[in-house]
Amino acid sequence: MNLPNRSEPYITEIDKKHVWHHLTQHAAFSSSDPLIIELGKGMMVTDVNGREYLDATSGGVWSVNVGYGRKRIADAVADQLTRMCYYAGTGGTVPGAKFAARLVEKMPGMSRVYYSNSGSEANEKGYKMVRQRAHSSGARSKYKVIYRNRDYHGTTIGALSSTGQSQRRDQYGPFAPGFAEFANCCCYRCPFGKEYGACEIECAKDLERAILEEGPDSVGSVVLEPITAGGGVIAPVPEYFPIIQNICRKYDVLIHIDEVVCGFGRTGKWFGYQHFGVQPDIVSTAKGAASGYAAISCTITTETLFDSFKDDPDNPMDYFRDISTFGGCAGGHAAALENLAILEEEKLVENAAETGAYLLESLADLKEKHAVIGDVRGKGMIAGVELVSDSRTREPASEGYAMRVAAHCNKQGLLIGRTNRSLEGLNNTLCLTPALIAGRGEIDQIVQMLDRALAETPLD
Ligand SMILES: Cc1ncc(COP(=O)(O)O)c(C=O)c1O
């Protein structure tokens, strides 16, 4: 993309004056400027000063799965908006119906799609379904949700109450009652101090401990990311989910999978859970659903769960009494429908599997070169590079070091992500989540620039 010098000091100036940025200490803007992106094409973005970057983050937070500048999504949305922009979810929209049908085709066993407009909200819907079901089924106390340490489920108070990240929660309490935590599944930092092979997957069995501690009659669901994303990119071992599923069946606990990051091909399958032989009851999705071209999120359930909300047609309160105004935005539904067609036609899920494997192999090679890389993890187009200051003791590198490595990449024209004030003392994982269109050429560029950043950034 050859642009004239687009220096836009005015935009930066008014932004710094009036925009309250997400997850940002504004004091930093006394000596630097926010990254304001003006143009995007494929995997490249250009800021308001005309600087180009290769984006290995899919829009900062793993959303733009099909890459930037997709005219056909824009056209589909424009066409839909001029035809019919919005109708509340009490009724429906044409693309909303079509997308729901197309979506559940990709998710055997799932059948109902409930629309809202953010990942947090999609999770909240799942929790509300569990609570209401507990009341209406007579098992009044089976309303609690168990969540996993290091998982993130969103920013609203309910979603944060189910988030296992100390720094994301800090200062936002008191939290909602009815949520309890169980252990994370990070082998590199096993919460039980064990080694894979001799651990009997104690991390999965810890779910049973949490259910028993809370009381099996009080637990309605467990919510899990298939691969912990923002908590450090942690993929479970193959034995993990079958154990989780057995425990849930034993205690009649619903399985709620949070696919907000992993969904829509990111991991090399349509949904992350499909790697692990688990059948969910509830799935929440957002980010990649429309690749960020419009806001949309979905809470997808089985027909059995849906049916449990219409047991008694004579009871005027016996239905899911929930609404999301912007779940009725037809532009989101149209964007999601077109996004799905692109993923299929361009075989981007397959590409995420193949090129993602190449990304992980290339990062594993980099680990041989840099002692500061303690662990490389992930699946498909989501990779985590955990940095350590001592590879023998696995002492985590500081968040400041990870920031400097990311800043070095930025200077070279590469955008990468990192764990960001999530887990005290453990914000040391770099996150590489390119769009699913990435080829080996782009992966080579990403890895080369990261290589240089690691070589040229001294530890504290
Ligand atoms: C796994 C997961 N769930 C839920 C959310 C919340 O999504 P949103 O920011 O759209 O509310 C996020 C956001 O990063 C996420 O990573």
3D architecture notes:
By secondary structure, the chain is α/β, with parallel strands linked by helices. The chain has two domains: 35-64 and 348-456, Aspartate Aminotransferase, domain 1, CATH 3.90.1150.10; 72-345, Type I PLP-dependent aspartate aminotransferase-like (Major domain) (Aspartate Aminotransferase, domain 2). It is built from 14 helices and 16 strands. It has helices at 9-18, 58-62, 71-83, 94-105, 119-136, 157-161, 166-169, 202-214, 240-250, 303-307, 330-345, 348-369, 399-412, 440-456, and strands spanning 37-41, 44-47, 52-55, 112-116, 144-148, 179-182, 219-224, 254-258, 282-285, 297-301, 373-379, 382-390, 395-396, 414-415, 417-418, 429-432. The strands form three sheets. The protein has a seven-stranded mixed beta sheet with strand order 4-10-9-8-7-5-6, with helices on both faces. A hairpin with a 4-residue loop joins strand 2 (44-47) and strand 3. Helix 4 (94-105) packs parallel to helix 11 (330-345). The radius of gyration is 22 Å and the shape is globular. The two termini are 37 Å apart. The mean pLDDT is 96. The structure holds pyridoxal-5'-phosphate (PLP). Pyridoxal-5'-phosphate binds next to helix 5.
